[in-house]
Structure formats: structure tokens, C-alpha cells
Write a structure and sequence with these properties.
This protein has 312 residues and is an alpha/beta fold. The protein has ten helices and 13 strands. The chain has helices at residues 5-13, 35-45, 60-66, 72-81, 98-101, 115-123, 143-150, 188-195, 266-282, 300-311, and strands spanning 18-20, 27-31, 54-56, 86-91, 106-110, 127-128, 169-172, 179-182, 200-201, 228-231, 243-247, 259-261, 287-290. It has a nine-stranded mixed sheet with strand order 1-2-6-3-5-4-7-8-9, sandwiched between helices. A four-stranded parallel sheet has the order 10-13-11-12. It binds threonylcarbamoyladenylate and magnesium ion.
Length: 312
């Protein structure tokens, strides 16, 4: 059900949950101080309880309600990238709900740049907002995706297509060096330029199963459609009728009816990736084959990460 910002404000103040657009993907919002509202987020998404949520803020006092300590480095990053698609992990203040942080002693904060997100946060309170998809499905980048996952009656503010299309970069400021748990539009190089020091990228493949995950969400299989996602073999001709081909560099003559060319525009591919995954399912296709992406500049690292996760 498409609703306006006034109705969304009312619902959130009553402890209900609503979906709203951010610049990355659609979020599933709840008042970050209302435990029963947050409980609904976990239930509706079927999200494992050990996966913490990002608190979305829109002012300095809101940041201070959650972060116990804001280091000079954190300030530099906030000045450079907020509002925007960067989530920062801080030591949490006592009193922050355990439901939000899944019992961790850290809290994830993000100040989104989307005007609708900001307006809702001003009007209601800081909002927890995971991506508004069923756990395991691709994140929603248009309002219709939210309806697909949660049904016609679920309240969504329709803000059109999201600008970035992949979830925010998650940077942990409580580790030494700082760690990128989830790559995104704000890449490692941009972060290092601001900090004038190196940060690391967590590589889940090397962490032993028994060790508790540093960023629990990253251990779940994510972003995957029902169709099998795979990298296109360089020798392979993209001509199967049951496959959606996502190409960005190869110029090919014999093609199937389901081929999309991005001509090196990786930001466009990022914006559309999850919609293409869902489209493959609507068309009943067996697989999505993506031309391998070289390099890691800009959004490429995040794209490779999401495609790799969908491959499983
Ligand atoms: O772009 C985004 O970040 C979107 C929009 C709606 O803002 N939200 C989003 O939330 O992607 P979600 O819940 O789908 O992903 C949050 C990620 C998860 O991987 C979670 O494990 C991690 O952030 N996270 C949250 N709190 C954390 C914490 N205290 N320590 C480490 N990782 C944390
Ligand atoms: Mg998510």
C-alpha cells in the first residue's frame, strides 16, 4: 500500500513499521527506541535475532544518543561522507536497546542523504532500518520490490528507484586498523584519503566458523534470486534462452533475448542489479550470468561482493 510521509509518520509514532526510500536501497523503518516496533522488523523480515540493525540518524544530538565515543577520525569521516551511504560502527552508549545491536557492545549509525529518510527521522525519532526485503532476498530498489516481499497491504513510501542500488559501506571504527565489513559506494580509497591511513577489508572466507562474526549480517547468504547466479565463462557464447546475461565490456553478435549491455557503466549496473535479479525470477529464467568484473575502483568492489554473495 503506497502511503505519504504524513501517514508514515503517524504509523511510526504508533509503533508500526513502514518502508521508505533511502539513497542506497529501501529501508524497513521502526523507532529505534521502541522494542516492540523493532521486534516487528525482525518478524516481518524473518531476520535472525543475532543480526544487528543500523540506526539512521539526522542530527548531531541523535548521534550522541547512541555513540559512546566519537573519535577525531570518526568526525573526519562524518564531515566527509554524511549525510550519505556510509555506516559507521561506534562503541555503543549504555541504554541503547540490545535488540538493535543484537547484544554487541557496538552500534552501527548512518545519516542517510535521501530527503524522505531525513524528514521521517526528524519527525519521528532515529529509525532502525534494515533493507526492506525478506531475509535472503535481494534488497529492494523500487517500492514494488517491497510489495513483492511483504504483500499489497504493507505500507511503503514510493520514492522511485534508489540512486545507488547497493547497500551502504559498513566501516567498523572499533577495530585497529578500521575494518570495512561491507563494501559500498564509498570505497576503501575514498575512506583512506580522508583518514590519511590504511583501513582493512574483512574477508569472511578466512574467518573460522567457530569465531563469532564481527559483522553478523555478512555471514548469511544474501542478495540471491531463485535463478542461479554465475560468472560468465570468457569462452561462453551468451545465447541461451533460459539465461539473463549482464555484460559490460564484451561486444557480441549472437545473443539471446535476455542480454543487457552496460558498456562499462558500473554505477548503472549497481543501480539495476537487484532489479535484474528479481526480473530473472519473474521471467522464470534458470540463471543470471554476469561478465566477470576486473578492478575494484569505485563501485566495482561492492558489485563483485554482492554478485559473489548471490553466487553463494
Ligand atoms: O544501505 C543500507 O545500509 C540499508 C539502508 C536501508 O540504510 N540498510 C541495510 O541494513 O542494508 P541491513 O540490516 O540490511 O544491513 C546491516 C548490516 C548487516 O550486515 C549487519 O550485520 C551490519 O550492518 N551491522 C549492524 N550493526 C552492526 C554492528 N554493531 N557491528 C557490526 N556490523 C553491524
Ligand atoms: Mg539487508
Amino acid at each position: 500500500m503506497y502511503i505519504g510521509i504524513d501517514r508514515a509518520t503517524e504509523l511510526l509514532k504508533q509503533g508500526e513499521i513502514v518502508s521508505f526510500p533511502t539513497e542506497t536501497v529501501y529501508g524497513l523503518g521502526a523507532d529505534a527506541w521502541n522494542p516492540s516496533a523493532i521486534q516487528k522488523v525482525f518478524e516481518v523480515k524473518r531476520r535472525p535475532a543475532d543480526n544487528p540493525l543500523i540506526v539512521h540518524v539526522a542530527s548531531k544530538p541523535m548521534i550522541e544518543q547512541f555513540a559512546r565515543e566519537i573519535s577525531p577520525d570518526a568526525r573526519e569521516l562524518m564531515n566527509a561522507f554524511w549525510p550519505g551511504p556510509l555506516t559507521l560502527i561506534f562503541p555503543k552508549k549504555p541504554g541503547v536497546l540490545d535488540l538493535v545491536t543484537a547484544g554487541l557492545d557496538t552500534v552501527a549509525l548512518r545519516w542517510p542523504s535521501h530527503p524522505v529518510s531525513q524528514e521521517l527521522i526528524y519527525r519521528v525519532a532515529p529509525l532502525v532500518a534494515p533493507s526492506a526485503n525478506l531475509s535472503g532476498h535481494p534488497s529492494p530498489t523500487i517500492a514494488q520490490h517491497v510489495i513483492e516481499d511483504f504483500g499489497e497491504d504493507f505500507p511503503v513510501i514510493d520514492g522511485g528507484s534508489t540512486q545507488i542500488g547497493l547497500e551502504s559501506t559498513v566501516l567498523d571504527l572499533t577495530t585497529e586498523p578500521f575494518t570495512i565489513h561491507r563494501p559500498g559506494f564509498i570505497d576503501k580509497e575514498k575512506i583512506e584519503q580522508v583518514l590519511k591511513k590504511k583501513v582493512s577489508i574483512s574477508d569472511e572466507r578466512h574467518s573460522p566458523e567457530s569465531e563469532p562474526a564481527k559483522s553478523p549480517g555478512t555471514k548469511y547468504s544474501h542478495y540471491a534470486p531463485s535463478a542461479e547466479v554465475r560468472w560468465l565463462d570468457p569462452e561462453e557464447k551468451p545465447d541461451r534462452e533460459d539465461t539473463l546475461y549482464l555484460l559490460h565490456g564484451r561486444e557480441l553478435s549472437a545473443e539471446s533475448g535476455h542480454t543487457l549491455h552496460y558498456h562499462g557503466d558500473f554505477e548503472q549496473l549497481a543501480r539495476e542489479l537487484y532489479d535484474r535479479f528479481r526480473e530473472a525470477d519473474h521471467l522464470g529464467l534458470a540463471s543470471v550470468a554476469v561478465e566477470p568484473i576486473q578492478g575494484h575502483e569505485g563501485i566495482r568492489k561492492a558489485l563483485i561482493n554482492r554478485i559473489q554473495k548471490a553466487i553463494g
